[in-house]
Amino acid sequence: MSSLLEVSGVSVSFDGFKAINNLSFQIGARELRAVIGPNGAGKTTFMDIVTGKTRPDSGRVTYGTKAVSLLSMSESRIAQAGIGRKFQRPTVFEDQSVRANLTMALKGDRGPFAVLFSRTTRAQAERVADLAAEIGLSGTLDRKAGELSHGQKQWLEIGMLLAQDPQLLLVDEPAAGMTPAEREHTTDLLVEAAKTRAVVVVEHDMEFVRRLNCRVTVLHEGSVLAEGSIDHVTSNDKVIEVYLGR
Ligand SMILES: Nc1ncnc2c1ncn2[C@@H]1O[C@H](COP(=O)(O)OP(=O)(O)OP(=O)(O)O)[C@@H](O)[C@H]1O
């Protein structure tokens, strides 16, 4: 399988402390991957490097069929090239409807002004309806985003990212603060999204990771400690020692 993203031998230090240490990581074009590891393992820094927020001291990061280097690209160019990132806290426009939030997120630079004062084309309306169905918010399109539950806001934000049609989606702790039913829906949503793109999920909740039913990468001290199925990594002695506990 050819990789969509390839990180090779990447290191980065902050004030002499190696947060990422000779890290290598690959993900295929239609793959769901969970990234786990103890606090301070380097999960956030890894995503910061992929999205261009942090520049590594050494190593390579290449992306796409032409294997272009992301290291010389700005954060906004990396986003335009199809890498989307969902942070832990949802950042939807609370005063706008779910429909307006999704419409604004569609490709084509539709800011709030354009959405409020120009007509939405039929194609855009259909795309918004499809996205709402995909994230399970079809029944809430006319409600203000601020009225949604925490879980629904997270799904709306995932929908807004999907509206940009990213090839690689990085998602930080999507299950945090969700009810069991919301977690289940989130699992389905991420599994579905990964059928047409690569999705990396950073998550601490092991039950949630198990339900994703995907390959798992365990980070520790800025490197890959173990990688494989959930059963493979959770039976690894080193993983038990540094992360899961005995
Ligand atoms: N800008 C920075 N300056 C100094 N140290 C940093 C900086 N960013 C990260 N670090 C350090 O690098 C290490 C890795 O941090 P990172 O946030 O990537 O870990 P993490 O795996 O995401 O942890 P958590 O699960 O707690 O979110 C930590 O020891 C952290 O304190």
From TrEMBL:
InterPro entries: AAA+_ATPase, ABC_AA/LPS_Transport, ABC_transporter-like_ATP-bd, ABC_transptr_urea_ATP-bd_UrtD. Residues 5-246 form the ABC transporter domain. Keywords: ATP-binding, Nucleotide-binding, Transport. GO terms for molecular function: ATP binding. Pfam families: ABC_tran (PF00005). NCBIfam families: urea_trans_UrtD. This is Urea ABC transporter ATP-binding protein UrtD. It comes from Thalassococcus arenae.
